[in-house]
Every structure is written in C-alpha cells, then in structure tokens.
Write a sequence for this structure.
C-alpha cells in the first residue's frame, strides 16, 4: 500500500464521522447537507471498491467510479430500513451506522470486484477457425 | 483517460503492459496529464479544442441567460414548450455542435464528451428544479408524504391496511427510509426541499454506469458517448423523478454492468476470441471467471439485489427477466445468479411484501395475456388538449426514431451486434412483460425504459461507424453518417422537449393552491374522508395514515359521464353516514383530468358548479385555484 493509498483510505475512514460532525451546522445549510450528501452517495461504496494497490486491470478505475454510488445507495437504504425495522431509526443512528461501516471497509483491503478477473483462468487454447 | 486503461489483449487473460509509447506520452502531455502545468496546457490547445471549449461556454451562457425568461407561472396547454424562450432552445445548437466536434477526439480526450453529456443532462432536466417554487409532479409529492409518514411513526407497518393501498410503501420501504435518513441528516423539514433535483442527480449517477456497460462492448469512445447522449435525450419517460423506481433503475444497471463484465464463462467466447471476427469498434469479450470468482461477485452484488427488492416491486422482476435472457447465451449462462436473485425476491415478496404480492398474483389471472390492455398508457381516457396530444405524438415519434436507428445498426453493424448480443437480449427482455400486467397503465413506459440502454447503444452504433473501415461502401457510409449524426442529435433534442415538457401544466402547482390543500387536509378530523377528482395534486396524500381517500374520477369514462349527471347525489350515496367528508377540487386536478381525457370538455367546471350549488355541500374555503367543500348528509 503506497503512502497515497494510505492517505486516501484514511480520508475515507473519517469521511463518515466528518459528515456526522457536519450535522452540528445549522439545519439545511450547505455546510451541513453537502458533506452529508457526498458521504451517503459515495462514502461506503468508495471505501469498499477503492482499487487495490498495484497493477490494475483495464477499466478498474472506471468500474470503481461507476459502482461507488449504486453500492453506497444500496448500503444506505439497507441500513435505514434495518433501523426502521428494529425501531431504532434517527438521523444520528443512520449516519453513525454508515460511518462505522465505512471506517471498517476502509481498513480492509477492498472488495475483489475490480480485480475479480486478476489471475482469471486461462482461456481455452483451442485453435480458432478464421473466416 | 484511455491511455491509462490498456486494452485487453484478445485471446489472453494477461494484463497488457501499462507503459505507453512515445507518441502516446506526447499526447498525454497535451491531453491533460496533471504533471503538465495548466498554463502550458492552455497555451498548447489546438483550434479544435478551443472550439470545443468555446461552444460549451456559449451554450452555457445562452442557457443561463434564457432561463429566467421562462414564464412558468402562466403555463397553458403546451406546458413549458411555449414558455421557454427562443434563446433557451437555441442554446442546444452550440451544445450539440460542440458535442459532435468533441466526439472526433473522444478516443484521446474522452472527458470532453463526458462534460458535454453532463451539460446536456443539466440543460434538459434542471430547468424545473431551478425555476419552480413548488414541488414538481404530484407523484413526487406523494412520495414526500410517504417519507413524512415514516418519520412520524419511526417504524414500519407493512401489514396494516391503509386507504388507497398506501401500505405498499411500508412493504417496499428502501427508498423512503433512505430519504428519511437524508431528511434528518440534512436538517430539512421534508424531502420537498430537494426532491425537484432527483432527475439531475439520478441522471449524473447513471452516466458512469452506462459508460461501464457500453465499454464492455466497444472500445470506441465516440460510440460510448454518442450512446450516452442518445440515452439522455430518449429518456423522456419521466421515471427519473423522486421515486423508488428512479433509484432502483440505477441499481439495476449497476448489477447488469457487474454481470456483463464479471460473469463470462470460461471457453464461451468461441469465435469472438479472434479480433478478426469482431467489428473494428467492438471490445474483446471480458476475461472469463472461475465459479469461485463468480460466487464472490454474487456475494458482492447481493446488497444491490436486496436493495432493489426492498425498494421497488417491478424492478426485481425486470432484473430476473434480464438474467433469464442472459442465460440464453452460452457466454452468460449463470443459473446460480438467477436462482439467488429469484430467492431474494421471493423472500421479500412472501414476507414484507406479502399483502400486495398476493393481490398482484391474483390480479394476474385477469391481466395475463391481455396484450392490448396491458400496453395502453395511462388511465382509461384519451389524451386531450393540444399540449398532451403533442406530447403523446412526440413520444411515439421518439420511440420510433430510436427503434429505427437501433434497427439500422442491427443490419449495418452485424459483427458488433454479435459481440454485443447480451446487451441486445437484455434490452429486448422486458418486451414480453406486456403479456403479464399493465402495471397501472405504466407498463408501456417501463418496458421502454428498461430497453433503452441497449436501444441507445445500437442507435449510436448506426450513427457512429467504425473508423477503421476502408471499403468503398464503408467510406460512403461514413460520409452519410457525418451528416446524419448531427441531424439525428438535433432531431432528438427537438423531440425531447414536447415528450418531456408537453404536460407540464399538470406538473406545476402554484404554492397558493397547495397551501389551501394543506390547510384543508391538516384541519380534517381523524378518519375523515377526503374526496377529490384525482389524487394527482400535491399534498393529496398528506396524513394518509389517518384519513380515507376517494379519487372519484379515476375510473372508466362512461362511469364519469354517469357521475356528472348528478355528482352531489352520486358521491353522497357512497359516503357512509356519520363520516366527515371533505371535497377538494383544484386547478391541478382540472388540468390532469382534462389532459388524461377522464372527463369531457368542461366536465370539471360542471362538476364543481353542481357541487357548489348543492345544499349538501358547504364551501369552507376557496381561492383562485380551487375550492374546499364539506359534505352534510
């Protein structure tokens, strides 16, 4: 893991807590909703999909970029629904759950999805008929 | 940047070397390598690059200047179409021209078409978010009411019977609970503060997912961005408002992207392994994965599949249909993924979603096989009024334009179609859904929406020929498309506005009208019955867990003709004794019932005057936008 990656992962790990801190700002102010929105839209997904260090598979960055928001939205919806189901929903519990998840995810090496085909089995070596 | 994403070598799973050649290094310096100072990069810009940049700035200036000229408060039958200034429409000329020019260098500078695509999205979808001083689209207001309901209760009641089947939202709550979290975290009073921006946010989030899907099948950045551009213009269906389906659609496409890139079975590429058999623009088949790797991928996308399942009813069905279609190909035959997806769907449908699921399954007995009925748009009525009729016609023309262009690609780009067959199958897969259910008159639009990613790709393929072809016919084809591409893109822009903004009069409600509705519903006693011609007006479902609703014009037109003969008696006969009944009639309802053809011309005014004249209906509030009456038996 290079220094840059470490910094990026550290930033991701604290991003949720910064968003939580932003809720101390006046209600509906940009200083509050912008960091919260950015975190909920990208934080958890980016922490999970952040490309691993080393040589990347083609389009690995594009893949991480494209899937970050969908994964984040899925996780945020899952967390919020679970909190409602256990009758423990509040704005704070919602953000704390996501922030804690993001911190843990940022400390892990990253999902194998962008590298899923790294070391993929060799293709069939049967000769191909040319037209 | 393309030079940082080496192209996979056909027929090998090896990662190609990451080093770039000398000319590529030189180009990288010119195209935006962050190591090169900005001032030097600007100084080295070529005339074409200046033109690309200048046209974007010109379009942005024209659009920004023209927007405040839009008199949206006095819309007539044409909605916003005759309220946008000519300058607004003209801003799309430099925007389209700049995009076409940027496409020429898309291979080395893909960020310029990307910027143009984002600019197009903002230009076509943001005007209402910027201009309106009220919630756009009554259904968005309905979803706002659902979030308020959940915030008020703090828990879910999926099996509680609520008026108007509103408990369905507690059964598929994902989107609403997420927004409850955002409302609390933002510190706003409700989603009404931000929901008008949903279409812009959804549109921006879907762009990289589309690019990922398209890059799986082509290496030609021109084709990728042309397809994204066409997708944006052909996405007039209006499902990208503040809705669960808008969010679920992005998740659906993300799942498809993962499947298309990571679920290729070993040894399944066949003759497509050879570059010789591929269209010059086609990408190599993604490297195959082992069973274990695919199993890991299933675990990774399971949260997305789950999120779709607890957010929306139809999207999981569409996902299963798409996966079944992919299983028809040897390349993507992954029954395990389909089984997992089906199990997740069934678990949700048989637990949280059980009441509506059972009801829907029972209704399938009537709707299954009724193709004509299932494919009709909207309610029972026929569109009336110049604007709605124009919108209906523009919708048909837009569908035909995209289908004809995509059909042309099926004939002209057969080798590309062969390698991109999975995308074609996924896009065609929703069509048989017509045979199953009408989905409240919306199946036609949903089928179109789910078929659009592939349709846009193939439509773009017809307009962006491969650069490598040198045959005589190919050169002629390229010359034709050099003219056809800008013409088609301008025509699609022209078709988008009536398709999207033609019924805007029904979608904008003045704040004074909504204030009257809010006051009437807020003052209604618990368990009161709220009557209105239609539920298509903002705040119609405020406090829906405490009140009963009857939208009495949302039925077949002959029944409405019968009702119009004596509305006071017709309604009174169906109101239970002792029930407090409040009738709310507003201008937005009048516009909607007229546009959808639910009432004959002048029918709404007749309804209102007859109720006001009846001694059993006492006027308790009125303003220039409507009237509130209380029924006394």
């Amino acid at each position: 893991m290079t220094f840059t990656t470490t910094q990026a992962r550290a930033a991701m790990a604290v991003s949720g807590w910064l968003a939580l801190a932003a809720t101390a700002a006046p209600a509906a102010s940009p200083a509050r909703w912008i960091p919260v929105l950015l975190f909920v839209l990208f934080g958890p997904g980016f922490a999970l999909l952040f490309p691993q260090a080393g040589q990347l598979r083609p389009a690995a960055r594009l893949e991480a970029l494209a899937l970050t928001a969908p994964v984040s939205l899925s996780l945020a919806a899952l967390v919020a629904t679970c909190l409602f189901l256990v009758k423990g929903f509040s704005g704070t519990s919602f953000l704390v759950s996501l922030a804690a998840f993001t911190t843990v995810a940022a400390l892990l090496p990253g999902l194998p999805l962008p590298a899923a085909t790294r070391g993929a089995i060799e293709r069939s070596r049967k000769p191909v008929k040319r037209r | 940047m393309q030079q940082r994403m080496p192209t996979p070598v056909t027929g090998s799973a090896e990662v190609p070397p990451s080093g770039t050649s000398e000319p590529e290094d030189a180009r990288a310096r010119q195209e935006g390598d962050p190591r090169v100072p900005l001032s030097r990069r600007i100084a080295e810009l070529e005339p074409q690059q200046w033109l690309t940049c200048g046209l974007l700035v010109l379009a942005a200036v024209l659009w920004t200047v023209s927007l405040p000229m839009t008199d949206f408060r006095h819309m007539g039958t044409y909605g916003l179409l005759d309220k946008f200034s000519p300058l607004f429409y003209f801003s799309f000329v430099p925007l389209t021209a700049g995009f076409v020019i940027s496409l020429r260098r898309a291979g080395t500078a893909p960020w310029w078409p990307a910027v143009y695509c984002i600019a197009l999205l903002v230009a076509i979808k943001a005007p209402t978010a910027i201009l309106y001083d009220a919630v756009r689209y009554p259904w968005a207001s309905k979803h706002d009411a659902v979030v308020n309901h959940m915030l008020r209760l703090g828990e879910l009641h999926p099996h509680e019977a609520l008026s108007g089947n509103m408990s369905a939202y507690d059964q598929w709550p994902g989107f609403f609970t997420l927004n409850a979290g955002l409302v609390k975290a933002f510190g706003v009073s409700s989603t009404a503060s931000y929901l008008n921006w949903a279409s812009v946010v959804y549109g921006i989030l879907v762009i990289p997912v589309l690019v990922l899907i398209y890059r799986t099948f082509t290496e030609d950045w021109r084709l990728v961005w042309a397809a994204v551009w066409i997708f944006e213009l052909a996405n007039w269906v209006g499902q990208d408002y503040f809705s669960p389906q808008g969010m679920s659609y992005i998740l659906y496409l993300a799942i498809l992207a993962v499947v298309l890139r990571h679920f290729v079975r070993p040894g399944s590429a066949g003759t497509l392994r050879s570059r010789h058999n591929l269209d010059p623009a086609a990408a190599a088949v993604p490297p195959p994965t082992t069973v274990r790797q695919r199993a890991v991928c299933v675990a990774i996308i399971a949260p997305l599949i789950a999120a779709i399942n607890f957010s929306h009813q139809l999207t999981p069905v569409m996902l299963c249909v798409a996966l079944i279609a992919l299983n028809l190909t040897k390349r993507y035959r992954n029954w395990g993924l389909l089984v997992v997806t089906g199990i997740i769907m069934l678990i949700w449908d048989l637990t949280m979603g059980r009441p509506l699921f059972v009801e829907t399954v029972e209704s399938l007995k009537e709707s299954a096989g009724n193709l004509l009925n299932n494919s009709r748009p909207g309610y029972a009525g026929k569109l009336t009024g110049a604007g709605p009729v124009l919108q209906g016609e523009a919708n048909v023309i837009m569908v035909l334009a995209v289908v004809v262009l995509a059909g042309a690609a099926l004939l002209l780009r057969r080798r590309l179609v062969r390698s991109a067959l999975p995308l074609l199958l996924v896009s065609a897969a929703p069509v048989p859904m017509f045979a199953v259910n009408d989905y409240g008159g919306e199946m036609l639009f949903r089928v179109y929406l789910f078929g659009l990613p592939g349709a846009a790709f193939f439509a773009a393929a017809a307009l962006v020929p491969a650069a490598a072809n040198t045959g005589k016919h190919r050169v002629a084809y390229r010359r034709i498309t050099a003219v056809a591409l800008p013409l088609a893109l301008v025509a699609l822009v022209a078709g988008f506005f009536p398709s999207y903004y033609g019924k805007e009069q029904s979608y904008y409600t003045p704040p004074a009208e909504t204030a009257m509705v809010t006051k009437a519903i807020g003052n209604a006693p618990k368990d009161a019955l709220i009557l209105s011609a239609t539920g298509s007006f903002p705040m119609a479902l405020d406090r829906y867990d405490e009140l009963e609703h009857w939208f009495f014009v949302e039925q077949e037109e002959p029944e409405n003709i019968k009702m119009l003969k004596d509305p006071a008696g017709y309604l009174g006969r169906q109101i239970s004794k002792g029930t407090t009944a409040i009738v709310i009639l507003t201008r937005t309802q009048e516009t909607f019932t007229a546009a959808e053809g639910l009432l004959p011309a002048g029918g709404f005014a007749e309804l209102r005057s007859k109720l006001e004249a009846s001694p059993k209906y006492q006027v308790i509030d009125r303003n220039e936008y409507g009237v509130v009456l209380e029924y006394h038996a």
Summary: Residues 320 and 342 of chain B are 7 Å apart (CA to CA). The beta strands of chain B are 529-532, 548-551, 581-586, 617-623, 626-631. Residues 1-32 of chain B have pLDDT under 50 and may be disordered.
